[in-house]
């Protein structure tokens, strides 16, 4: 008897080997040994998707010329897969081991793609129906978790249904991408607008949402806000009162004044009667554990990290066995994880240097159930928490790994620290039948909030009386029915435009991809999107953002602010009225995924629907194409974009200099570059151990010095203070930054 364990990646396979006691070398992706599963256990790894959908030219020579849009649409009668030469050796090894096996345990990642990777390998090898196949779900890669994983094997049925959904999605995305990208790129090239105009269900929809956000800023018109406020005095303390009387817009000014007159509130002072007074002690329990988006957001809050930096570190901590599976949209955890966190409470505190600072708290069972997955859902994604493997003081990890681990540990321990407790004081006054309210909260016990890390940026001072340690108990000084003098004031404020969109608002929890349902008018489809948490998953949302940057549809500046490029605006304009960029399409696909998962449909149904949509889109584009209008729109948007992002003129060729983000190396080579592709002028953002800001670049391009940088690290290892200036090196004929000393 032989059992083969199929892992998704080599690092994952080696962790399985460690957990099961199979000896291996540092880079081995295949190893054999005796385990509790089988005396002959083989662990072998894929390397992600070994098989890829074939390119269009595979289906006919007429598709080799990507500029030939007359041959569209491309509609394969059958989808074929290609095994790249680089994957042949690895695939052959896997096939050989599976052919000899009696049992195959699919141990790829828990998401649909993990299932699809295994399904395609087994199908391509002809072993899909020849072997006994089981499923194990990796939640963490420390030894205890690996053993637990393989002692709780599941039937493969659900994984295969998930795989069919993933395969249907990938083939449908192929039809959209291969046909419509060629269509738009070719038609635009024919009118002199050159570029790679990629179209895809996910990136086109996200681009649409971003454009809608920017359009709301462009179209924003300031409006006045009319609001009645007041002040009263209690025991020598001035109390601010807010009323329910608030109207927005110049058109409501007359109505606002009429309401004041009707209630006799036009004078500066009136008498108000105390109608409500209460003091209530309240407590709050912590939010559920981190999702991937939550952890991105938290690392940005506490350390200012980018999404790319967080992504790399959370994967590393998972690979090293310190944290649970990172690509999760769920925050609940299984009971066994809660139990080991509770048991190891003091050890986790010690690991982050907080020995004895907190006492363990036993959460009531009725409250605890909010944090735990249901027994029937133990194949779901779980929240990110530390594993049983404690990160020791002498463990060989980076500072980044240690910082994220501390953040994750602190979050996990919030479940085991008593609730945050505060008292809420409220005072309600009726001024001529208009309610006016004063409220303040006073902290009684910070509880679990005390263990959370502070923000990198100091928060603005809380409003007077809000969350103070003392608060103000109105009931000590006034009683219901008492009459108090109220000084009235009409506050006239202004509506504020939406703030510029930042990249973290795309993919984090509560971001526009998750909240895409708000952009869907159809209530049924909006409900589907809300239930499935919007467009994409934690594993794919950041990829959508990176793809938009790579396709040059958006740029992201040094402050993380997104700007839509002329290419982005043009592509979004061309897709107006198309189902491709409408969030409703994703909702329809999610509905079909569910039908596939329930066995009520198959992948062909979704593919056929997509094919019809592609035919319809090609017909629509050809019918509505207006060359002159398109060129005018593109040139107008290009002029706006150039003015918006330009930091100054290139000293070499006179073109605009803009910030370019390095998405491949986590920002290592972020730079300010000339927009002229033939010009190599560059100022790298990182100068030794210091960052050059956009404000400094503007000065440099204007021939001025930057602000004074302190503690610049020299090659000798010493530090110095200096301003920087841009000077031309006569030997190399290139511009370089040079320090200027006082």
From TrEMBL:
**A GO molecular-function descriptor:** DNA binding
Does the record's keyword annotation contain DNA-binding? yes
Enzymatic class: isomerase
This protein's GO CC annotations:
cytoplasmic replication fork
Q: Which PROSITE patterns match?
A: TOPO_IA_2, TOPRIM
Q: Which Pfam families match?
A: Topoisom_bac (PF01131), Toprim (PF01751), Toprim_Crpt (PF13342)
Location of the Topo IA-type catalytic domain:
159-619
- Endpoints of the signal sequence: none
Protein's UniProt keywords contain DNA-binding: yes
Listed SUPFAM superfamilies? Prokaryotic type I DNA topoisomerase
Q: Which residues form the Toprim domain?
A: 2-142
Enzyme Commission designation: 5.6.2.1
Single biological process term from Gene Ontology? DNA topological change
Keywords recorded for this protein, A-Z: DNA-binding, Isomerase, Plasmid, Topoisomerase
Q: Which reaction does it catalyse?
A: ATP-independent breakage of single-stranded DNA, followed by passage and rejoining
The entry sums up its family as follows: Belongs to the type IA topoisomerase family.
Protein name per Swiss-Prot or TrEMBL: DNA topoisomerase
- What organism is this sequence from? Lactobacillus crispatus
Question: Upper taxonomic classification of the species?
Answer: Bacteria, Bacillati, Bacillota, Bacilli, Lactobacillales
């Amino acid at each position: 008897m032989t059992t083969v364990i199929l892992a998704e990646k080599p690092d994952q396979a080696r962790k399985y080997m460690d957990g099961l006691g199979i000896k291996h070398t540092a880079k081995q992706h295949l190893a054999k040994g005796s385990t509790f599963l089988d005396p002959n256990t083989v662990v072998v790894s894929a390397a992600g998707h070994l098989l890829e959908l074939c390119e269009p030219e595979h289906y006919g020579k007429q598709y080799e010329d990507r500029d030939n849009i007359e041959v569209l649409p491309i509609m394969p009668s059958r989808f074929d897969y290609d095994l790249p030469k680089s994957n042949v050796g690895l695939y052959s090894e896997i096939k050989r081991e599976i052919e000899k096996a009696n049992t195959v345990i699919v141990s790829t990642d828990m998401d649909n793609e993990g299932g699809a990777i295994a399904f395609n390998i087994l199908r391509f090898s002809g072993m899909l129906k020849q072997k006994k196949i089981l499923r194990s779900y990796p939640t963490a890669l420390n030894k205890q978790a690996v053993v637990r994983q393989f002692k709780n094997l599941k039937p493969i049925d659900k994984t295969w249904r998930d795989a069919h959904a993933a395969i249907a999605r990938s083939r449908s995305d192929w039809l959209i991408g291969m046909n419509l990208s060629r269509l738009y790129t070719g038609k635009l090239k024919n009118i002199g607008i050159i570029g790679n105009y990629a179209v895809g269900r996910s990136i086109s929809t996200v681009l649409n949402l971003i454009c809608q956000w920017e359009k709301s800023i462009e179209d924003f018109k300031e409006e006045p806000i009319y609001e009645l406020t007041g002040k009263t005095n209690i025991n020598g303390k001035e109390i601010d009162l807010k009323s329910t009387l608030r109207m927005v817009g110049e058109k409501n000014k007359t109505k606002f004044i009429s309401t004041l007159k009707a209630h006799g509130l036009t004078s500066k002072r009136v008498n108000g009667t105390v109608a409500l007074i209460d003091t209530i002690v309240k407590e709050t329990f912590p939010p559920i554990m981190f999702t991937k988006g939550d952890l991105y957001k938290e690392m940005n809050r506490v350390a200012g990290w980018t999404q790319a930096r967080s992504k790399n570190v959370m994967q590393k901590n998972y690979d090293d066995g310190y944290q649970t599976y990172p690509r999760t949209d769920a925050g609940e955890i299984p009971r066994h994880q809660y139990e080991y966190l509770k048991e190891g409470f003091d050890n986790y505190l010690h690991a982050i240097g907080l020995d004895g600072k907190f006492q363990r708290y036993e959460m009531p069972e009725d409250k605890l159930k909010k944090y735990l997955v249901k027994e029937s859902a133990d194949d779901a994604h779980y929240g990110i928490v530390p594993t049983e493997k404690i990160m020791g003081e002498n463990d060989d990890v980076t500072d980044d790994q240690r910082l994220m681990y501390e953040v994750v540990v602190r979050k996990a321990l919030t479940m085991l620290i008593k609730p945050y407790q505060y008292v809420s004081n409220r005072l309600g006054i009726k001024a001529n039948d208009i309610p006016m309210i004063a409220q303040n909260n006073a902290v009684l016990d910070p509880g679990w909030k005390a263990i959370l890390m502070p923000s990198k940026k100091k928060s603005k001072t809380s409003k007077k009386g809000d969350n103070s340690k003392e608060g103000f108990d109105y009931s000590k000084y006034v009683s219901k029915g008492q009459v108090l003098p109220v000084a009235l004031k009409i506050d006239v404020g202004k509506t504020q435009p939406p703030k510029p969109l930042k990249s973290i608002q795309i993919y984090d929890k509560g971001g526009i991809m998750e909240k895409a349902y708000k952009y869907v008018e159809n209530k049924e489809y909006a409900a589907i999107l809300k239930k499935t948490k919007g467009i994409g998953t934690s594993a794919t949302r950041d990829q959508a953002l990176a793809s938009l940057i790579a396709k040059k549809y958006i740029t992201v500046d040094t402050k993380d602010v997104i700007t839509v490029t002329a290419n982005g605006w043009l592509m979004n304009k061309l897709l107006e009225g198309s189902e491709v960029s409408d969030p409703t399409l994703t909702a329809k696909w999610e509905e079909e995924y569910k039908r596939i998962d329930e066995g009520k449909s198959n992948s062909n149904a979704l593919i056929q629907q997509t094919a019809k949509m592609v035919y319809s889109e090609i017909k629509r584009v050809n019918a509505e194409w207006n060359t002159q209008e398109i060129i005018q729109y593109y040139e107008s948007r290009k002029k706006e974009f150039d003015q918006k992002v330009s930091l100054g003129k290139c000293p070499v060729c006179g073109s605009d200099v803009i910030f370019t983000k390095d998405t491949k190396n986590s920002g290592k080579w972020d730079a300010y570059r000339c927009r002229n592709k033939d010009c190599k002028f560059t100022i790298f953002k990182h100068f030794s151990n210091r960052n050059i800001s956009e404000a400094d670049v503007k000065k440099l391009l204007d021939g001025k010095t930057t602000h004074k940088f302190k503690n610049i690290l020299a090659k000798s290892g010493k530090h110095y203070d200096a301003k920087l200036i841009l000077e031309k090196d006569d030997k190399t004929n290139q511009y370089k930054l040079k320090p200027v000393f006082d």
